[in-house]
C-alpha cells in the first residue's frame, strides 16, 4: 500500500510541497508517526509541533508554505487525512450472511429482503425487519419490535418488546432499549412498580452508543428524534421526548418526562432533572446539573446550571478568593492597630484631664 507523496496529493485533492517522490507506507498522528509515515497538523498555529515528530511528511492547511519536510496543503486537513488513513488501512469488508441457521428466528417474524441475522441472534414473535437490516450475534430483538430499512444492531444489544426503530439507525453493542422506567410508589410493604405499559420510538438516522439505556414510557412512548446522536453510557429515562439532531455525550443522565427541542447539545456527565424542557439550540456544559427549564439558544454550566456568562463571573470571583483572603487579613491587622491607637489616645486624654482637675 506504499504510495508517493505526489500520488497521495492527487487522492486527497491537495498541493504537494517539497520532495514529491518520497514513498509513504502509513499514516499516524504526530506523536506516533514513524520515519516512513505521513501525519497531520490541522491548524497553522500548531505547525511548530511538527518539529518534534518523526513523520516523513505532513498534511497541513493550505497556505502553510515550505516546512522542514515535504507536505500536502489541503483545504480540509481532517477530510484529507481520513482519505489517507482509508488508503493505508481500508475498512474490513463484511460478507452478507443472510439468515444464519444458528440464529433463533420466530416463525411469525416478518423479514424483508436482504436482511442479515448473524449466528446466535434472537428474533421474537411478530418482529418486523425492513430491507437491509443487520442483526449481529447475541443481539435480542423481543416480541413486536419493528426495525426500519438499513438499520444495524450490534452484538448483545437488547430491544425490549414493542420497540420501534426507524431507518438507517445504528444501535451499538450492549445498548438496552425499552427496559422498565424507574418509577415506584411507596406501599406498606416497600415499593410498588408503577405502570410500564409504554414503548420506545426511535426515528430515522439515530445512533445509540454502546451500553446506553433508554427506558420505555409509562403509558405512551419515550421518543428519540430524527438524526439524534447518543454517546456510550447515556441514560434516558421513561417518557422523555428527545428532539431532532440532539447531541448527547457520554455519561449524561436525563430523568423522566424531560423534553428537548432540536439541535440541543448535552456535554459529558451532565444531569437533567425530571419534567423540564431544554429549548432548541441550548447547550448544557460538561457536568452541569440542570434543575430548571433552559431557554432556546442558551448555554448553561455548573451545578446548579446557570447561564455561561454568569458562571464565568462566579468562577473568576472564586479564583480571586485566596488573594482577597490575604488582603482581608492585612486589613484586619491594620484595623486592630488603629483601634488600639485610638483606645490608647482616649485613655491618655482621660488621665491628662483628671490631672488638671486635681
Please provide a brief summary of the model.
By secondary structure, this protein is of the alpha/beta class. 19% of the residues lie in helices and 27% in strands.
Question: Which short descriptors sum up this protein?
Answer:
11-stranded mixed sheet; 358 residues; 10-stranded parallel sheet; 19% helix; 39 strands; 27% strand
Proportion of residues in β-strands:
25-35%
What share of residues is helical?
10-25%
> Which stretches of 5+ consecutive residues score pLDDT under 50?
none
End-to-end distance, in Å? 113 Å
Q: How many strands?
A: 39
Estimate the mean pLDDT confidence. Answer: 93
Q: In DSSP terms, counting alpha (H) and pi (I) runs of 4 or more, how many helices?
A: 4
Summing up helix and strand content along with how strands pair, one would put the structural category as alpha/beta
Largest sheet: 11 strands, mixed
CA-based shape = flat
Strand order of the largest sheet: 10-13-16-19-24-27-30-33-36-38-39
Verbal overview:
With 358 residues, the protein is of the alpha/beta class. Helix content is 19%, strand content 27%. It contains four helices and 39 strands. An eleven-stranded mixed β-sheet has the order 10-13-16-19-24-27-30-33-36-38-39. Strands 8-11-14-17-20-25-28-31-34-37 form a ten-stranded parallel β-sheet, with no helix packed on it. A seven-stranded parallel β-sheet has the order 9-12-15-18-23-26-29, with no helix packed on it. A hairpin with a 4-residue loop joins strand 38 and strand 39. The protein is flat, with a radius of gyration of 32 Å.
Amino acid at each position: 500500500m506504499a504510495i508517493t507523496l505526489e500520488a497521495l496529493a492527487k487522492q486527497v485533492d491537495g498541493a504537494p510541497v517539497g520532495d514529491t517522490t518520497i514513498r509513504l507506507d502509513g499514516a499516524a498522528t504526530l506523536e506516533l508517526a514513524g520515519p516512513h509515515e505521513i501525519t497531520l497538523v490541522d491548524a497553522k498555529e500548531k505547525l511548530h509541533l511538527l518539529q518534534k515528530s518523526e513523520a516523513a511528511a505532513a498534511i497541513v492547511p493550505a497556505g502553510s508554505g515550505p516546512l522542514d519536510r515535504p507536505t500536502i496543503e489541503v483545504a480540509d486537513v481532517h477530510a484529507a487525512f481520513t482519505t489517507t488513513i482509508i488508503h493505508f488501512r481500508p475498512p474490513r469488508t463484511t460478507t452478507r450472511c443472510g439468515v444464519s441457521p444458528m440464529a433463533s428466528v420466530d416463525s411469525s417474524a416478518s423479514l424483508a429482503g436482504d436482511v442479515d441475522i448473524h449466528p446466535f441472534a434472537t428474533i421474537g414473535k411478530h418482529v418486523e425487519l425492513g430491507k437491509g437490516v443487520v442483526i449481529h450475534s447475541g443481539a435480542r430483538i423481543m416480541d413486536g419490535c419493528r426495525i426500519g430499512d438499513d438499520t444495524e444492531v450490534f452484538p448483545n444489544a437488547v430491544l425490549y418488546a414493542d420497540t420501534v426503530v426507524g431507518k438507517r439507525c445504528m444501535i451499538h453493542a450492549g445498548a438496552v432499549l425499552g427496559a422498565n422506567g424507574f418509577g415506584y410508589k411507596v406501599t406498606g410493604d416497600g415499593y410498588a412498580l408503577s405502570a410500564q405499559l409504554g414503548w420506545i420510538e426511535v426515528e430515522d438516522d439515530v445512533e445509540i452508543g454502546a451500553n446506553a439505556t433508554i427506558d420505555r414510557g409509562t403509558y405512551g412512548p419515550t421518543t428519540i428524534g430524527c438524526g439524534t446522536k447518543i454517546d456510550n453510557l447515556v441514560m434516558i429515562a421513561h417518557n422523555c421526548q428527545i428532539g431532532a439532531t440532539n447531541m448527547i455525550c457520554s455519561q449524561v443522565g436525563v430523568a423522566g418526562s424531560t423534553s428537548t427541542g432540536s439541535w440541543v447539545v448535552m456535554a459529558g456527565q451532565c444531569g437533567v432533572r425530571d419534567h423540564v424542557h431544554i429549548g432548541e439550540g441550548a447547550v448544557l456544559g460538561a457536568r452541569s446539573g440542570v434543575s430548571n427549564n433552559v431557554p432556546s439558544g442558551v448555554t448553561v454550566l455548573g451545578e446548579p446550571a446557570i447561564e455561561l456568562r454568569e458562571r464565568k463571573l462566579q468562577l473568576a470571583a472564586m479564583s480571586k478568593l485566596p488573594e482577597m483572603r490575604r488582603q482581608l487579613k492585612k486589613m484586619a491587622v491594620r484595623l486592630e492597630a488603629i483601634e488600639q491607637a485610638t483606645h490608647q489616645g482616649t485613655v491618655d486624654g482621660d488621665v491628662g484631664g483628671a490631672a488638671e482637675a486635681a
